Inverse folding.
């Protein structure tokens, strides 16, 4: 019985579709495993640093954007006052 199962498994592995499926599963599992390793290896202090850096970048970006809009509005109002 064991020989029959081994022979059937050998026949299935020899087909191209099965090999492609096995390769796809192996590739995806490698990516998932590496991602879990990276995320699992990051400590709480590292996460705090990452979140802090992202928050700082977002804050600076918004401040620059709002300052540019404020300057544009101020220039428009100054031009209107000159022509009035």
């Amino acid at each position: 019985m064991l020989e029959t199962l081994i022979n059937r498994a050998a026949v299935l592995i020899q087909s191209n579709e099965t090999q492609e499926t096995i390769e796809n599963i192996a590739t995806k599992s490698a990516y998932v495993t590496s991602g879990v390793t990276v995320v699992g290896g990051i400590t709480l202090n590292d996460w705090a640093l990452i979140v802090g850096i992202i928050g700082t970048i977002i804050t600076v970006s918004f401040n620059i954007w709002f300052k540019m809009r404020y300057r544009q509005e101020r220039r428009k109002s100054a031009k209107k006052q000159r022509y009035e």
Notes: The chain has a mean pLDDT of 83. Residues 43-84 form one domain. The chain has three helices and no strands.
